[in-house]
Amino acid sequence: MEDQVNRLVEKTWAKFQSIPSSERFLIAVSGIPGSGKTTLASTVTKRLNALYSGLHGKTSTPPIAGFVPMDGYHLTRAQLSAMPDPKHAHDRRGAEFTFDGDAFVALVRRVREPLTPESQTLYAPSFDHAVKDPVQDDIPIEPTTRILVFEGNYLSLDKEPWRTAAELMDELWFVDVDFETARKRLVPRHVKAGIAPTEEEADKRVRENDLVNGEEIVNKRLEVHEVIVSTDDEGWKPEAQ
């Protein structure tokens, strides 16, 4: 996995050199729940910033790369409760229909606008796991942030509005993992996060929700630029994302 990460950082940096200073370079990292996509996306972002700082010989340089997880585009619990079948909506939270894809596309369109001296900081939502709802305008995207790494389950899904978002990206990466490995990662994560009180109930949720979502993610995947095989290397341990 470490070799794959290094190659992706080098590839991204090389491609970034060729774009005009008024543009951003956008990457979407997708994969099933438990694939390790969050760790990949955040690690690539950190290493791009370290590379940029190293080239400039100082650590005070504004970060060139930013990381935007899709978690902030979860529909709120109140929105789920307002659906025709609230119980089903809450039980299936994490499925494609429980995200505000249109709002995500709107953000991507905004960061695609040309950068000028007048460009303002943009904001993306985050997700507060303590209250289990999004937090609006919590992730700043500065005008100096010219590489953006987005991460989420559905960023290469061949279905609107995700298809539109994918078309706005420069690179689509997919983190591939077998379903049993994903299940083993997700069960303890759900217990730790308070999503399920016991491993037995966590396993039930994983099988009836997360891996069901995973089937859609895999079966309806767009063509991508990179497929990264998720492994638990000693030097690079993916989080259960």
Automatic annotation (TrEMBL):
A molecular-function term among this protein's GO annotations: kinase activity
Domain Phosphoribulokinase/uridine kinase residue range list: 26-181
Domain of life: Eukaryota
SUPFAM superfamilies from the UniProt entry: P-loop containing nucleoside triphosphate hydrolases
Pfam families tied to this protein: PRK
Protein's name in the database: Phosphoribulokinase/uridine kinase domain-containing protein
Organism of derivation: Amorphotheca resinae ATCC 22711
Lineage, broadest ranks: Eukaryota, Fungi, Dikarya, Ascomycota, Pezizomycotina
